[in-house]
Amino acid sequence: MKQGKPVADEYEISKQNKVRQIREYAVYNKEAVHGVLDSALIAAVAFVQDGQPVVVPMLFGRDGETIFLHGARKARIIRLLEGTGTACINVTLVDGLVYARSAFNSSMNYRSATVFGKARLIEDWDEKLRALRVISERTMPGRWDELRAPLDNEIKQTGVIALEIESASAKIANDMPDDAEQDYDIPIWAGVLPLAATFSTLQSDDRLLEGVEPSAAIKAMQGKVL
Amino acid sequence: MKQGKPVADEYEISKQNKVRQIREYAVYNKEAVHGVLDSALIAAVAFVQDGQPVVVPMLFGRDGETIFLHGARKARIIRLLEGTGTACINVTLVDGLVYARSAFNSSMNYRSATVFGKARLIEDWDEKLRALRVISERTMPGRWDELRAPLDNEIKQTGVIALEIESASAKIANDMPDDAEQDYDIPIWAGVLPLAATFSTLQSDDRLLEGVEPSAAIKAMQGKVL
Prior knowledge:
The structure is a homodimer. By secondary structure, chain A is an alpha+beta fold. Chain A has a single domain (about 25-195), classed as Electron Transport, Fmn-binding Protein, Chain A (Pnp Oxidase, Chain A, Roll). Chain A is built from five helices and nine strands. Chain A has a six-stranded antiparallel beta barrel. Chains A and B meet through strand 2, strand 3, strand 5, strand 6 and helix 3 of A and strand 2, strand 3, strand 5, strand 6 and helix 3 of B.
């Protein structure tokens, strides 16, 4: 059997993606990094304007090693990412507060992923449609096929940036407090207060046509935890 | 009565903080911007390294028009923010998915705030202690006074950046779908799926001393929604 180029399980560690602080939380495994990316609804996207950093939250979706970022075609960030070299995006989900026995060791539990890559504006019509589908399905699974086809004018007004992952890393903290040994004698409560982002109950639009119900795919989102 | 310099209720709109997309969601009112900042636990902080954008999640706290960012003293971001001109931070909380009758009008409900300002490393010992208290109290209200005083070595190892807000804005979307008029005839469900980040039940550390209970301030966090 002919073998293709082997696909690495891990992102190579470089100056760009190396986790510098609290290295024991560092994760370079691709599947784990993808998992963090796919759990988040919004990415913080950084770019440089007139030499100054700017960070903007964007809708996004991942397909393999490609991240698609969504905005208005005429939006500043779409224009600037188009012209930028390597872009950087971060997603972070906070999973709890870690109450240690000192302020110094108090912290949070979280999942965070950072991705670097070249940003490219998608000009090809079919590629753009596929990218919009990816973003929609990552955010609202099952919805794309329920909706009418996008209109030409809607596609024209939308800007989609494709970012091929050049390097990436994640940091995942899911711990009880790690206190200094002598602090364990202090008679103070310590532990974790978990935080969870949960979808609740669907709220119907006032202008819903009579007898129209949400699909099984949409109903299944209720109660889901990010 | 002698009057000081009048304090404006709103951030002045400039090229820097002007909301460019979906302007009807733009908020420049200081109290509203502060409210969004204070609801978030993590800020996305952007800086420029070798001409390239980098974005890092950081613990933070707000006191008036000052944002304090927390990291290890030797962390790259603390060193780079120290040398940077204007820094940019964003916080975003997603409040729900907006299922419209088209992919184009589908969106999210969210609260987002973006702040620009000069970053300054806090060198003064007392100012640093005050800043650490602000960050702690914004994140874990009431905890600071329950804990032993920080040790000199702990304060030395911690880096705190002060960012005086130069300009800021928020975007707040809290809507049902806004569909194209002709799409309201499509027999498809539309509405909102709310998302809420909620603190759940305290989990005690295994090494808790016998009989030690969480304080009323910590217990009061349970069930709180961001």
